[in-house]
Write a structure and sequence with these properties.
Blueprint: E1 2-9, H1 12-19, E2 23-36, H2 41-44, E3 48-52, E4 55-61, E5 72-77, H3 80-86, H4 95-101, E6 105-119, E7 122-129, E8 134-142, H5 148-161, H6 172-180, H7 182-192
Antiparallel strand pairs: 1-5, 1-8, 2-3, 2-6, 3-4, 4-5, 6-7, 7-8
Length: 196
């Protein structure tokens, strides 16, 4: 499956419109631990590796990151051995040990309070992070790359119909990095070739 998702800044009025008549699916608090190498190999390549409640999840970009940034396309992998293989790291008992054996370490620990909704076939996540950042993410899952363009347009149309602005918005990890590690943030901007 390919995730097609777009992040949006939240204001009180558009949050109310977005969640009106939506079905609340779940409400939870969780802590994510994000990993990278000391030279930021993963994040420089738009690869995001995290552990949540001891379960690893990785997101690898399907397309190259562009200045547009309007919609993100990722292949999501949750099996530890598959993640290790994709990262070209020898698997040793578990992924955390495997990562540590080659120098990977955590660079961000973020607690989020999330409300997940379903509305008109879209999944909507409303996140409030422990460092004072809030955002909404609208997502569709598709089976193949050829479906991503249509899914992107559906997300944008849905967002516009709910009064959301179609502008680039930093994800929670990028915003965390910007606020807490200026050197890492500068490295990402230089690597991507544009301002985040």
């Amino acid at each position: 499956m390919i995730e097609v998702k777009k992040k949006f800044a939240l204001k009180t009025d558009n949050l109310a419109r977005l969640t009106s008549e939506a079905e609340l699916i779940s409400e939870k608090t969780f802590t994510d631990v994000y990993y990278d190498s000391p030279n930021y190999y993963l994040t420089k390549n738009n690869i995001w590796l995290r552990s949540r409640a001891g379960n690893f999840n990785s997101k690898f970009p399907v397309f190259s990151l562009t200045k547009d940034k309007s919609v993100n396309y990722y292949e999501e992998i949750t099996n530890e051995k598959d993640i290790s293989k994709k990262l070209n790291i020898k698997f040793k008992n578990n992924l955390k040990i495997s990562l540590e054996s080659v120098g990977y370490q955590s660079f961000a620990i973020i607690e989020s309070k999330r409300k997940k909704y379903q509305k008109d076939g879209f999944t909507i996540d409303i996140d409030k992070m422990d460092f004072g950042y809030n955002l909404a993410e609208i997502e569709l899952l598709v089976n193949s790359q050829k479906e991503t363009k249509e899914a992107s347009q559906k997300i944008i149309n849905f967002a516009k119909s709910h009064g959301l602005e179609i502008i680039p918005v930093r994800g929670k990890v990028i915003e965390y990095i910007r606020r807490n590690n200026p050197d890492h943030f500068k490295t990402l901007e230089l690597s991507y070739g544009f301002s985040l």
